[in-house]
Design a protein that fits this description.
Elements: H1 15-19, E1 22-24, E2 44-46, H2 56-60, H3 68-79, E3 98-104, E4 107-108, E5 114-122, E6 138-147, E7 152-156, E8 171-177, E9 194-199, E10 206-213, E11 250-260, H4 264-271, E12 282-293, E13 307-311
Parallel strand pairs: 4-12
Antiparallel strand pairs: 1-2, 3-5, 3-13, 5-10, 6-7, 6-8, 6-11, 8-9, 11-12
Length: 331
């Protein structure tokens, strides 16, 4: 890992420092003189919750596992980077485990598509994200576009009534295959001979994905302009299955990185098609951009800067760990 600084424990970040933070303890075994930043009588021991990304076990064992609910909440807080670890605060970054930034043109003409670029940067992960069996884990982008009347005009990454993801959703995932080229989709890895697709985020890297979003609204009327020939109420370029908006002066694009430990296909295979159980979905990070719909400036006149933002879950986060120019694409 890029967090391993050979011979320098003050800069190295070990697995136990993140996943087993120090907690107050009255246990006789509290204290440790082997850690560079601890003492034999510091009144601490390492938490054995080992928080990570497993949200499915506590939620599925709610009837047999006392304390399942606080453990689930702590795991979700961990993924969003909301749990502070004071003893490594000087060497561990802040924010969610993966940061999300998005950019789009500040203005698009009516009828044009909106080019949206989303960058995800590994932030607090010393290993691949997601970590574990990528044939069943799912982490994806949930995108919602609304016009200035609040009408949803385009989506990606939504779950249907049966908790399956919308076709075309961007996913971090792997698709292993057997000797006949069939997809390994029941975690039957003993039949696996290769992988036809794999996309994950390496530690210290970022990944970029681009979308082309239909813009079917027309710009808001300028009351000071002289009346001209009436414009059509809307340009019909809606996404499949999504209603076209009425006149729109601005689009808001909300982007969220989401995660669940087990996909719905495997749960239904194991528990039957009538299964109602589904893995909890955690929102790791969120950001948004606004795009105005209207005439573009004539050639030679500077255009408005590209709209963009970077954020964690529910609040503005630090800048991404690296610039987009230096970002490395992971496929």
């Amino acid at each position: 890992s890029h967090w391993n600084k050979q011979g320098d424990p003050g800069r190295t970040i070990e697995c136990r420092e993140c996943h087993m933070p120090l907690v107050d303890s009255r246990d006789p075994a509290a204290g440790d003189d082997l850690d560079y930043n601890r003492t034999p009588r510091d009144g601490k021991h390492r938490s054995h919750r080992f928080l990570g990304a497993n949200t499915i076990i506590p939620s599925f064992q709610r009837e047999e596992l006392p304390g399942w609910e606080p453990h689930l909440k702590l795991t979700e807080q961990w993924l969003r980077g909301e749990i502070a670890i004071p003893e490594i605060d000087d060497k561990w970054t802040h924010g969610p485990i993966v940061k999300v930034a998005a950019s789009a043109p500040a203005v698009v003409a009516p009828g044009e598509s909106i080019p949206l670029r989303v960058v995800m940067a590994s932030n607090k992960v010393g290993h691949d994200f997601p970590t574990g069996p990528l044939d069943i884990i799912q982490s994806w982008l949930d995108i919602t576009v609304t016009d200035d009347r609040g009408t949803v005009v385009w989506t990606s990454g939504k779950r249907d009534a049966r908790n399956f993801l919308q076709p075309g959703t961007f996913l971090f995932k792997a698709e292993p295959v057997d000797q006949h080229g069939n997809l390994i989709d029941r975690h039957n890895l003993w039949e696996m001979v290769g992988v036809r697709f794999r996309r994950a985020l390496f530690p210290g890297y970022s990944d970029t994905v681009s979308f082309s979003i239909p813009c079917s609204g027309v710009g808001m009327a300028d009351s000071s302009a002289s009346p001209g020939p009436p414009l059509p109420e809307q340009f019909e370029i809606p996404a499949p299955g999504i209603p076209a908006p009425a006149t729109a002066g601005e689009y808001r694009i909300d982007i969220a990185l989401k995660y669940r430990k087990v996909d719905q296909f495997l749960l239904n295979y194991l528990m039957g098609e009538t299964n109602t159980l589904t893995a909890p979905v955690t929102e790791i990070a969120r950001t948004s951009v606004n795009v105005n719909v209207g005439p573009k400036p004539p050639a030679g006149i500077p255009q408005a800067p590209e709209a963009g933002s970077s954020a964690g879950a529910g609040h503005l986060a630090e800048p991404l760990a690296m610039s987009e120019a230096d970002a490395k694409l992971t496929r």
